[in-house]
Design brief:
The complex is a heterodimer of chains A (470) and B (422). Chain A has 470 residues and is α/β, with parallel strands linked by helices. Chain A is built from eleven helices and 23 strands. In chain A, strands 5, 6, 8, 10, 11, 13, 15, 16, 18, 20 and 22 form an eleven-stranded mixed sheet that branches. The N terminus of chain A is likely disordered. Chain B has two domains: 353 residues, no CATH class; 51 residues, no CATH class. Chain B is 21% helix and 40% strand. The model of chain B has no long low-confidence stretch (mean pLDDT 95). The chains are: A alpha/beta (470), B alpha/beta (422). At the A-B interface, strand 22 and strand 23 of A face strand 20 and strand 21 of B. Strand 22 of chain A pairs antiparallel with strand 20 of chain B.
């Protein structure tokens, strides 16, 4: 394709560009001090150990430098003093759809989250700003002993399980943003699956941001006890605002012996959101943790889901799709730490850069000394749509000792001009053809998503592509 | 006096050059020391930057012994031998007219304009700017090869750089300029006389103009106590081909920084490296394939075989600039792990800002192929030897990329000797 004749691709984000005024019952004001943390603790009724945990997190947040020696300088544009760290619609999660306030419902309806979805999803917990707007666990799941609540409820009602793993997979001091989250977290899910329980339906939560300059700091902890299986899905769409919004979540997964956790994210932040997320799982013997991650939108996303394979034959997997539109930077990747013999990890990453969009893959694979028969496979494919699109790949692979097999491959390509020509010949518009080609590029990964998510994903990709070409 | 506190300028060098050296010394002192947080020093052993233990080298004691050992290929165009940064032999056998092969001080004096145009014109971007400034400041001599337009030097040119003495530092320099349509092959040898600790801050710059062909092979066999930096920049012009191979046989700590710039359409740069690693030796490879023009090709292939407690760091970047459409760029590093204590770190990077690009990179770490071992053992080859043969084959893949049978054969012999194979 010729650069000059290639039409400019713009992204139509107007679909998500709406906002309703919400009366925030609790508001911690702007900026972050120790007082803000006390305020959050008081409002939420946090136990003392949580207050202590938050204050330690705050201290570490102040100490830690911005990671700009390797990450985007755009991070420097975050003005921490201008951010609201806590907002809540009300403390008690709503139990049924009827209890959800009317204007909140309107927001969800506009997003096209159908009420019917609840019928075949095991439990729905939609996060509206900081607190769960409603959560509804299907009776069957509850009977199996599955706990699926908001993180606040989790730490208050199930401290014996919560405390054991909270902050253990990702210590507060892991990085500046995990420390920030530790200081001000609210919302997110706490899930516990008892031994041997296989949750047949995915658990799901929708996340929303809806206040100008409001950072959302949800905290999710999922514990799958021995031999259990669970799939968790989160989807994110955010209304568009004039000033930057900060989203910094921490997600910790613990898969005990033989357990399986699948964590699926489909994300579509508006293009002024800084999305800086720390996600890590701890896989014990024979356990499997799989991150399926789709990043669309945001101004800057930095997210490297990781798996620490702590037990023998543990398995870690990251499947990642990133789409960087005009002016956006998707800095995503994966982190695989092999800490036991015969552990296996797999990373497959596909990225698409549109317009002036930039997608970056950053990966870490670590196989320390004295381990046997570890395997890693990493594949990164990048697709560049326009002449001014950009893609980068920065993996770091450390292997100590023999008897392991590690391979990393990356490639960069363009949309095949002949394919587009062929499709146009058969009556497709250029935009439709481009959209089809992009969908083809990610198709094998999209297939790995549950059906309703792969449909949603295709719709999101179409949304990004259509109306933007020709 | 050590190399950090004493700045000595050779009286053989012209004033304009000495003036630049003084500036370089100031620069060396002002450039901050790299730290652990510097991405270009990630995984690196920062102990090697402790420079105060190295001293300026005095004249070599036994020139005859050095010359006796400066034997490479039998059929040569010319040979220069340096020891402790002093020229000890200049042997011109068969150089076409117009070709200049001179020690650096003569080039700076007699061909000022020509030499000045090319001497260290490109900044060191891969982390060792401070070492490059030290090199420039402490430089005494080096090799300058100038091949005029259209001239083809059929036979290889050999350069030898020797170090002799305990805790001495040397600063070998090689500058090759191939004008339009010319061709040459240069073999640069880096050897230690004895098994003594020494420090090397070497620079080799290769300028390959339109339609020219250059093959540059660095045979590095420093003592196992040597800390060496080999900093390279290569600039490739329209439809020109630069092929460079590093044969890293020796050294305790070797850091190579190779920066290939594809300056014009159709330029091609082939970057090869062979690293048999053992004991507690380390190799730190930093590479940059900088595509600045359309339709150029760069192709990097590094093979590391890591035994005992040896360690490798590979950090490579392919950057395809906004103008460099239709680029073909490849980067492949393979680590063959031969022991449980060995360590390989790979950071293959890509930055793509252009369109219609074919670009790929790969990094693998694996062990000896058990089927191949079994096959050879079944045919009566002892396992130790079978393992060596597999390693030799692993390196042969890289050697073949030289596409010059006589050179492949010679370097194959060197590898056989290094691996103690027949």
């Amino acid at each position: 394709m010729n650069t000059e004749t290639k039409p400019d691709i713009n992204i139509d984000r107007s679909v998500g560009d709406f906002r309703y005024d919400v009366d925030y019952a609790f508001d911690a004001g702007v900026g972050l001090t120790e007082k803000t943390i006390d305020y959050i603790c008081d409002v939420k009724g946090d136990p003392d150990w949580v207050r202590k945990f938050r204050k330690e997190g705050y201290k570490k947040f102040l100490e830690k430098p911005m990671p700009t020696h390797w990450a985007s300088k755009d991070l420097e544009n975050i003005v921490f003093e201008n951010i609201r760290y806590y907002l809540s619609q009300g403390q008690v999660p709503k139990r049924s759809w009827d209890d959800v306030p009317e204007d909140v419902k309107r927001t969800f309806e506009r997003l096209g989250i159908p009420e019917q979805e609840r019928k075949f999803l095991a439990g729905v917990e939609a996060q509206f700003d900081s607190e769960a707007a409603y959560s509804n666990i299907k009776e069957a799941v509850g009977k199996q002993g599955v706990i699926f609540v908001g993180s606040t409820e989790g730490l208050q009602k199930h401290p014996e399980i919560f405390k054991k793993w909270f902050g253990k997979v990702i210590p507060s001091g892991d990085n500046k943003f995990s420390a920030l989250n530790s200081a001000v977290f609210s919302g997110g899910s706490f899930i516990y699956i008892p031994p041997g329980v296989k949750v047949s339906h995915p658990l799901q939560a929708y996340f929303r941001i809806n206040a100008q300059n409001f950072g959302q700091f949800e905290r999710t902890l999922i514990i799958a006890d021995e031999g259990s299986e669970v799939t968790y899905m989160e989807g994110c769409t955010a209304p568009k605002f004039e000033t930057a919004t900060l989203h910094s979540a921490v997600v910790e997964l613990v898969a005990l012996k033989g357990a399986k956790i699948q964590y699926i994210t489909v994300q579509n932040w508006s293009s002024n959101v800084f999305n800086l997320v720390t996600k890590r799982g701890l896989a014990h013997e024979d356990a499997e943790i799989k991150w399926i991650d789709c990043n669309i939108g945001s101004r800057l996303t930095m997210k490297y889901p990781g798996v620490v394979m702590k037990g023998r034959r543990a398995r870690g997997e990251v499947i990642s799709i990133a789409l960087a539109g005009d002016g956006q930077h998707q800095d995503t990747g994966a982190k695989m730490v092999h800490a036991a013999d015969e552990t296996t990890s797999n990373i497959i990453s596909k990225s698409i850069s549109l317009g002036t969009g930039r997608s970056t893959y950053r990966g870490m694979v670590h196989i320390p000394k004295h381990l046997k028969k570890c395997k890693n496979n990493t594949e990164c494919d990048a697709l560049l749509i326009n002449a001014n699109s950009r893609t980068d790949t920065y993996p770091a692979i450390t292997v100590r000792g023999q008897g392991h097999s590690v391979q990393h491959e990356a490639s960069v390509s363009q949309i095949n001009a002949e394919q587009i020509f062929y499709m146009q010949q058969r009556g497709l518009s250029e935009a439709a053809a481009m959209s089809l080609a992009v969908n083809g590029f990610v198709n094998d990964l999209v297939q790995q998503f549950p059906m309703e998510y792969s449909v949603e994903l295709k719709r999101l990709i179409d949304l990004e592509m259509e109306g933007s070409v020709g | 006096m050590n190399i950090v506190s004493q700045h000595q300028i050779s009286s053989d060098l012209p004033a304009w050059f000495s003036e630049q050296q003084k500036q370089a010394w100031t620069e060396f002192q002002s450039v901050p020391q790299p730290t652990r947080h510097d991405e270009l020093w990630r995984f690196s052993n920062l102990k090697i930057l402790d420079l105060a233990r190295w001293h300026l080298a005095s004249a070599p004691a036994d020139v005859d012994a050095l010359l006796a050992r400066s034997r490479g290929l039998s059929d040569l165009a010319a040979k220069l031998v340096f020891a402790n940064d002093r020229l000890i032999l200049r042997e011109i056998k068969n150089l076409p007219e117009g070709v200049l092969l001179l020690p650096l001080e003569e080039a700076a004096r007699d061909h000022e304009a020509l030499f000045e145009r090319y001497f260290m014109k490109h900044p060191t971007l891969l982390g060792s700017a401070k070492i490059a400034a030290l090199h420039r400041a402490q430089l005494k001599t080096g090799a300058f090869l100038y091949v005029p337009a259209g001239v083809k030097v059929e036979k290889p040119i050999e350069l030898w750089h020797w170090s002799e003495g305990d805790h001495i530092a040397i600063f070998p320099h090689t500058l090759v300029v191939c004008e339009e349509g010319s061709s040459a092959s240069v073999i640069d040898h880096f050897f230690s006389m004895n098994n003594e600790a020494s420090f090397v801050a070497g620079v080799n710059d290769l300028i390959v103009k339109a339609d020219a062909h250059l093959k540059y092979i660095a045979v590095q066999n420093w003592s196992r106590e040597t800390t060496a930096f080999h900093l390279n920049t290569t600039g490739v012009g329209k439809n020109a081909v630069a092929t460079s191979l590093q044969l890293n046989l020796g050294g305790r700590y070797i850091r190579t920084e190779s920066n290939s710039r594809l300056l014009e359409e159709g330029a091609r740069s082939v970057m090869l490296s062979i690293n048999p690693m053992d004991a507690d030796r380390e190799v730190d490879q930093r590479t940059f394939q900088d595509h600045l023009a359309p339709s150029a090709t760069s192709d990097l292939l590094y093979h590391n075989a890591l035994d005992d407690r040896s360690r490798s760091v590979f950090s490579g970047l392919i950057k395809v600039g906004t103008a460099a459409h239709e680029t073909d760029a490849y980067q492949k590093v393979r680590n063959l792990m031969l022991s449980d204590e060995a360590e390989a770190n790979s950071m293959p990077g890509l930055e793509i800002l252009a369109d219609r690009v074919r670009c790929s990179h790969g990094a693998t770490s694996g062990e000896l192929n058990q089927d191949e071992l079994f096959y050879m053992m079944a045919r009566g080859i002892p396992p130790q030897k079978a393992a060596k043969l597999i390693v030799r084959g692993f390196f042969e893949t890289v050697l073949r990329r030289l596409e010059e049978p006589s050179l492949e054969k010679y370097f194959g012999h060197l590898l056989d000797r290094r691996l103690a194979l027949g």
